[in-house]
């Protein structure tokens, strides 16, 4: 239901949207504390820009769009030279959330078959290693587009690349991933 006026009800944001936004952020950043921080930053940014809310969408949709921007900004920061010096993050190598971003994408049938759990974990780990071996820009674009499902236009704008360049990078990343998986998974 769209807002009838250009007003928002920020007093109810935590009750109404915190869980939804957190669940949106967690598979995209693979870090519970970071996801919580991004949700808080989203609420803060929403309060600061409340006067810009035009009521053309629901509050939730508007907040999700702010959260998407926060996630993109986070990845831009950690992938810039300055950001690499400032941000240190366990990037799927270890910890309690290791590889959860892949588990979120595994087809439901695989999750329900306990006999496949070891094979699925090994496949996930190998795919993770293959993605980590991609050139940095390829891995970033691949994760944003294929895993995190960001829109092409959003990625191009944030990374200052053309759509054609994005698809070349995706194609090359997939080609390298296929070769890596063939060499290290399917032929073993």
TrEMBL record:
Keywords: DNA-binding, Sigma factor, Transcription, Transcription regulation
Domain RNA polymerase sigma-70 region residues, every copy: 14-77
InterPro entries, per database record: RNA_pol_sigma-70-like (IPR039425), RNA_pol_sigma-70_dom (IPR014284), RNA_pol_sigma70_r2 (IPR007627), RNA_pol_sigma70_r4_t2 (IPR013249), RNA_pol_sigma_r2 (IPR013325), RNA_pol_sigma_r3/r4-like (IPR013324), WH-like_DNA-bd_sf (IPR036388)
Keyword presence, Transcription regulation: yes
Sequence ranges assigned to domain RNA polymerase sigma factor 70 region 4 type in this UniProt record: 125-177
Entry's family note: Belongs to the sigma-70 factor family. ECF subfamily.
Name recorded for this polypeptide: Sigma-70 family RNA polymerase sigma factor
Organism the protein comes from: Polaribacter batillariae
């Amino acid at each position: 239901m769209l807002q009838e006026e250009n007003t928002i009800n920020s007093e109810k944001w935590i009750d109404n949207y915190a869980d939804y936004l957190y669940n949106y952020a967690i598979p995209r950043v693979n870090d519970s504390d970071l996801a919580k921080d991004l949700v808080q930053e989203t609420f803060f940014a929403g309060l600061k820009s409340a006067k810009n809310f035009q009521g053309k969408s629901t509050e939730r949709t508007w907040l999700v769009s702010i959260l998407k921007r926060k996630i993109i900004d986070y990845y831009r920061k950690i992938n810039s030279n300055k950001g690499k010096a400032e941000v240190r993050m366990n990037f799927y190598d270890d910890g309690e959330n290791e590889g959860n971003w892949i588990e979120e994408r595994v087809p439901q049938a695989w999750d329900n078959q306990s006999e496949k759990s070891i094979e699925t974990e090994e496949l996930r780990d190998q795919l993770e290693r293959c993605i980590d071996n991609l050139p940095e820009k390829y891995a970033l674009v691949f994760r944003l587009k294929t895993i995190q499902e960001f829109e092409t236009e959003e990625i191009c704008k944030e990374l200052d690349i053309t759509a054609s360049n994005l698809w070349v990078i995706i194609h090359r990343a997939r080609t390298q991933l296929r070769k890596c998986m063939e060499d290290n998974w399917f032929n073993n």
